[in-house]
Write a structure and sequence with these properties.
- The structure is a homotetramer.
- The first copy, chain A, contains eleven helices and eight strands.
- In chain A, strands 1, 2, 3, 4, 5, 6, 7 and 8 form an eight-stranded mixed β-sheet that branches.
Chain lengths: 409, 409, 409, 409
């Protein structure tokens, strides 16, 4: 009678997997510990040694390391969810934590089997904390060929997580001749190596404890064994997945901030806020405009959550394809990540700003520190311009043009 | 070493189920057939007999009917996806189609086993098309107790899909005394029953072929066997799921319109649009502002898609709980549906309006009919005020207060 | 004691001039007459002969003509205010009316004293209605040198007000060789001249009665006496003021539409709207969300009003400088006009769309015709892309870079 | 021939008055002096004694005092323009300055001729700086009748400009019986009076140097001669103008902040910003998205400027009506002020937030202090909820309902 085949509905609606309970609990516990001092540390800025040790002690630095190397072997949806959880408590240390995992990803994407085994094995066994000095657009770090490796000279700025790290990934340009830069190499070395100096010169009004110092290299030695990507190596689609990890980290950080601002406002509304005298209601939460705006703000959070979850799944699918991943699959994962990042950017800027309309002047006390959500989101969302992400999404939708793989896309 | 347990990543990332291929193909084929005449029929308005027969012929009227009664037994995620697909082609007939399924849901939610067997069996076997005359807020239809049933007198306005339908669900208020209304009953009867007259008096500037006429009842007889919910029956949480079907239908309709407008603009940009003389680019699609705005608009579509998919899943979970579904689970499904509807409302209004900034004055020819996306979305999004949905979402987020089950929430 | 000089406050606060009473009354009266049939004529489209005669009969076609030539000699703030008033009643005929004045301005800006005397004198005495065929970007109209003038061949599309006009201004490119276009000339001729044919081929979903047909020229003769700007004449800053008249007309048209939509909603709220059942108020106007959104929408109207008034004043100042007006003064007037147009664009699109949130589904009846505000604004705001106006404003603010004088800026 | 009377155009277009040159220059000079240390003082918070002395030395404290009492006798458009100028440099001290003038207005609106002569004469001669302790909604300050005046006991919180002031206006409720408050009185006394103690307990993340301490009264004596409004005096429309001064001050403060943020971004773009690597342009100011967004942001500033100027004029007109001002005229002035405040609120929040999209991560250095524009605007815009201003504007537009005169409206 019918022209279409009967369906087995059950097959259409699989249960959504819960985030693994233990990891979620560990992240929540760590978040609570960070939250306890987050307002005070935001004011102080600088390096948060004790809190970095809390992160190290949580075991979560091993989360992205494959089980083959002793790690927890979590997928990126799980890793990114922990970033979001921590960001809601302390987005600066969440960044330090997330960028550790970005370096783990770098070893997995660029390194060979021996390097992965050695470096990631040590990461788990010695609980190493990685920092970032890998930014190909910052071209001042020069690698000069020397016996058994490279001599590094120059500086990397905005090196997130570098202060207090154990090991750094880095990019450098090969010296061709005096003042002439050649191909790019990617490597890694111990932060404490001779000739490496990390300066605490990060000075922004937000994300103040991200340890984003400058790393100065003066005749530092990078042995060949620690070169992850040789100069001039052709980038495969798989290798270009690294910036997507970075983009997804941003999305989850912004989202965590939006969630945290929303929750802070909710708590304040219940515990302290008084209704506006002209509202005619007994509690601030009963004000029709407070309810309506809460609904509007929540939708910004919600849209970003859904997009971040979808993008993490899509990224993992691309990663799971291994070396077979195509430029087209990489493009799809990139666009999903950009969608998530743009929606989270919007939520991260707007929600922390607008919650004040709900909670009023009394909520601006520095003791509460509610401005930090906006300051942190405002600084971090400038990592790369959202307008170029919107352009890339537009190009993809209109033209099917994949975003050009760059350190920022 | 680590304080958390290793994970099995695979378990975290199940494949997302593809929509069943046959159903999707049937919906696409039907959509293409409807699209061929949609612009012309939008201009004409009125009843679209031939196109309703196309729908009937597609077999998709049986989609939501359980297999036990001979139907396809699809879950609501699948049914709603077909609504979205059809809405992108012709949102008026998609509404007629969707409201048929809403009546099927009504029989499933309110009717007893005998009624389900008899009415839904006939729906499949005789390919019945259902229309809606169930709106408890419209209280002019009066049921007077009579031998073996009820005598119905009065009118139901805005009865979507009533014109040309085979069978109608309806709500009526029991006559207590002259001019005094009592409890509500819900029933159904053949549209061609004696004393039932459908008037084609729908007159809006959008959704013109939704057959939303007035149904006039004059001494029509509703036998007890066709009363789905007896007067004054206590509504269980499960029975209050019906308005959520309605809300989800709206969300998918608005979303289909937003998608269709975006796609129409994309096509026009490629085929006809010329770059603005001051842009300095050779093709309109290369204009940086066209690309950027396309990215912005796409994000509205994308957020609504993700929310609509999530809400459909959540609704199905509640439905699958059967009579055990609690008020709290109903509330969660309701909020998910409201989130989807509010985001789709926004996308449905904004995308069809703003695509014109991409494609310019030449795209306003009545031959193209690109204004219909906005007109259809503008009319349909007024079904119930979005401001009260935002309020309900806010109440839920701030207070954990479940939305009151009403015909609109 | 004080370090600053006492002020005479009175000098700081001059009274704002009221719009001349007679002109305002005449415009109001004309607007009321047009409004009576606007909904029905919008549906019908085509040429509105009777209503054009009402405009002619009002005497307002002489409004912008200097008193020296028998006109009313109103300043542009006054002329543009009448455009706004008429646009609130019937934006299509307001466009026809406004474009008549744009052609008057063209004679004043491009023509010599003899031409002004002759053409504008006739305009007043014979109550001529001018139409537009002047669009230098449409380069298909060719002027070939011939005895005592030029032979015109080709077509001008989107020639607003051409159908039913008495006289047309036009631009044409001089024929240099077969298929090769040379310099631009600007002229004017009677619409009924031999070889001139106006086709009613305007087919948009809005602004349906703007008489924006195509003008086909076949060996039409343009005598030298009616050439307003000789081929290749160097454009002075004063001559580049014409597109600003056009931009200001748009701004006032969009604004009139926004005002009209707001007023229609206000009327409907009082006369017909019912409160939403969940609102708990007795009248729709008492709904807190209706009040709040009305406030938001009003601010869009208000901002556009203030900017349109300021821009008209600034334009008049530039015009009053006569030939002495500098490129810098022209730039300031242009930016003020763009500010007004961009704000009115926003109000013109948003207010007619969002008022439906205030008034609900019942207000979508085609009998009311409330969708015409949006359709008219949507079509008209595509005259030139708002994104390039925003760019020009940005360039001015960031760089002090004057907008390039073009037919659209 | 024409049905309307010729116009004299000149009469329609009076020159807009330039702000009095000397006052503007004095304000600019003072602004420059404040700007020099504003970033550092924002970080420090607390009382800015030296800068308050700069304000005192400028002579501008006499600006609003009528010439009859030795003041400069400026109108409120002029006074408010100086507030805007100072706010662009240092919005905290601009608030202190503006609230001084609010107290001058209070003496003019509530006081009798003798009080005006005595208090304002002294204000000019002794260069007194006034602070605010007048907030009728804060009902903890109790006045108990005593010989020749009132004994004051209790506290006023958020008393802007109180720290370091010479004189305070205040409101208090008359003690009727133990714990029972009666009618309101308004008075003023020297900040140094016995029993008056100002505490520096202002602790917000923005507007840090507004000296908004708590004023504690312990058996302070308010002589009858310094009671400006006797308990229970009926408020005339003129007396209800005071909150409009306050609202207009807010509007100009927010606007000054928006302007300052825009100018800071412009300066940074020229001096330091580098183009985004993917932009393909040589200078950041040439980026199409930077230009476009600058245009958008400028429009927010511009709309607020126009509304603030219009509201100041409208307020002055109401004030100039003296005791004859009606409730209706007061309502019109109030709505104009609310329009200005709501638009400036929007500009004040959005522009300081979004300029960072133009200037990027490098502009977040704490040395530049660019976050202070947002922090200051965010804190100050919470003075009273913008949602209730939008509601009041909506009520006025829909119902013609005048806003209820309260301390906040």
């Amino acid at each position: 009678m019918s022209t279409v085949t009967p369906l087995h509905r059950a097959a259409l609606d699989p249960p959504r997997p819960a985030l693994d309970t233990d990891v979620a609990a560990a992240a929540q516990q760590l978040a609570a510990a960070l939250a306890a001092t987050a307002v005070e540390r935001d004011r102080r800025g600088g390096h948060a040694h004790a809190e970095r040790e809390l992160i190290r002690g949580s075991g979560l630095l091993a989360l992205s390391v494959p089980q083959a190397y002793g790690g927890l072997g979590a997928g990126w949806p799980t890793v990114l969810h922990t970033v979001r959880t921590l960001a809601a408590a302390d987005s600066a240390l969440a960044h330090v934590y997330a960028f550790h995992h970005l370096q783990v990803a770098s070893v997995l994407l660029y390194g060979d089997a021996e390097q992965q085994q050695r470096l990631l094995g040590a990461t788990v066994q010695r609980r190493l904390f990685w920092g970032n000095a890998l930014n190909p657009l910052d071209t001042t770090l020069i690698a000069t060929r020397t016996e058994g490796g490279w001599r590094l000279d120059g500086t990397k700025r905005y090196a997130s997580g570098s202060v207090g790290s154990d090991r750094l990934t880095l990019s450098a340009h090969v010296r061709v001749a005096e003042g002439e830069r050649g191909a790019l190499l990617i490597g890694n070395l111990p932060t404490g190596a001779a000739g490496v100096e990390v300066r605490e010169d990060w000075d922004s009004f937000g994300q103040r404890q991200t340890d984003s110092g400058s790393v100065r290299f003066e005749a530092a030695f990078l042995p060949d064994a620690d070169v992850l990507q040789a100069p001039g190596a052709q980038a495969t689609p798989r290798m270009t997945l690294r910036p997507l990890v970075s983009q997804l980290i941003m999305a989850n950080l912004y989202l965590g901030l939006a969630q945290a601002a929303f929750e802070a406002a909710r708590g304040y509304l219940h515990e302290r806020a008084r209704p506006w005298f002209a509202s005619g209601v007994a509690r601030a939460v009963d004000d029709p405009y407070v309810q309506h705006r809460s609904g509007e703000l929540w939708l910004k959070v919600r849209a970003a959550q859904l997009a971040a979850d979808a993008a993490a799944q899509r990224f993992q699918q691309a990663l799971d394809r291994g070396d077979a991943v195509t430029a087209g699959e990489r493009a799809e994962a990139a666009i999903a990540a950009f969608e998530a990042k743009a929606l989270a950017h919007h939520a991260g800027i707007e929600v922390p700003a607008q919650v004040f309309e709900l909670i009023g002047a009394g909520a601006t006390s520095t003791r509460l520190g509610f401005d930090r959500f906006w300051r942190n989101a405002r600084v971090h969302t400038l990592h790369d311009p959202v307008d170029y992400k919107l352009r890339d999404i537009g190009r993809w939708q209109l033209l099917g043009q994949p975003p050009e793989p760059t350190p920022y896309s």
